[in-house]
Amino acid sequence: MGIQYNPSIPAANDRPTNDQPIMQSNFASIKNLLDVDHIDFGNGNYGMHQWVQMPTPFSAGTTVPFPRIFTNIVDGRGNPLPGSLPQFFMYNAGTDAQSAFQNNVTAANGSVMLPMGIIVKWGTYSIAGVSNSQAVTFTNAFPNALFGVNISCITSGSIGDLEINYTPNSPSGFTGRRQGNAPTGPMYFFIAIGN
User: Which domains occur in the chain, in start order?
Assistant: First the structure.
């Protein structure tokens, strides 16, 4: 349901007295519009935002320029978010469906874009054998750069891991390397930060 507003008032040849009731109605509608999320005219901080509300569900659409900020209860591919709670989406390029690439928080291996464009990715992988390495490819690459990766062993009894380090490959992944003796195929958890 919208609010009443007549954009054709005042008309060019109308007298203000004839248009006064409709003009007053228009001004009342403008005030109602401004009062949503804003501090009203009677306060010294008038016009400032109290908060920002967005309709949910909503999508980025294709008719507005980037960057796009919106909320939805599904990701850009239509996958439901946990608990049907609205997720804050912000991205600077791509299509509506690509919002799923950087806002997938529904799985053990996932990704989320934080305000100001920082992206966090996480997941698990294993390394077979002794003193071997394993390339890890992100499901969706960072658009620009991989800043760093933190790796930890999550397999019980994997004593003997002497060193865990990584070599940045590109925004699309990294190589995890284990030095020293360890049980075959321990699992590792990684968290990666980039943009």
Answer: 1-51 (no CATH), 54-105 (no CATH), 119-194 (2.60.40.2080)
